[in-house]
Amino acid sequence: MELSDIKKDLKERLSKKRYEHTLGVMYTAAAMAMCFGVDVNQALLAGLLHDCAKYLTDKEKLSACKKYKLPISPMEDANKELLHAKIGAAFARHRYGVKDEEVLSAIACHTTGKPDMSPLEEILFIADYIEPNRKQLPGMEEIRYLAFHNLTDCIVQIIENTLKYLEGKKSLVDDTSQATYQFYLEKQKQERIS
Ligand code: FE
Ligand code: FE
Description:
With 194 residues, the protein is mainly alpha-helical. The protein has one domain (3-193): Hypothetical protein af1432, CATH 1.10.3210. It has helices spanning 3-13, 16-36, 40-49, 58-67, 74-78, 83-94, 101-108, 119-130, 140-146, 151-169, 175-193. Residues 50-51, 54, 84, 110-111, 128 line the site of one fe (iii) ion.
């Protein structure tokens, strides 16, 4: 499917707010791709589709997992919201005809990140957090600066912010987010030495 057809489809499925967020992520990811020499079309496509399963209810999320044979971790079972990322990747493949595995994997890991992401995956993870419609969370200015200067430092900052926020809410921290954080802390150390 063409980008413009996908846009039309998502405009009908997603809430107005979610659709605006989607466009924000799409253009932010494209700008970051330009900055870091990543393919701009991959960034646009990943940004546009990253939340394409976000409109599903929990019940619909479970039946989509069944349909596409997606495994559900205990963490995802406890917080079904997390599932929209992997279901989004399945929708991208089967409903929107995306064949680019790099784009699909960026969609699949956009919420929690994962250790050792590709530049495209890193960009989508960050763009989702910083796009212009996001409310001005504490530390956002610094994070937006880092998004165009150092992806590793930016990811560390984002996860630290998220952990602080979840601590405040006494919510559980996803295992994958934790693993992502450990990986990027170590990467940051390595980059600072060299
Ligand atoms: Fe999302
Ligand atoms: Fe999003």
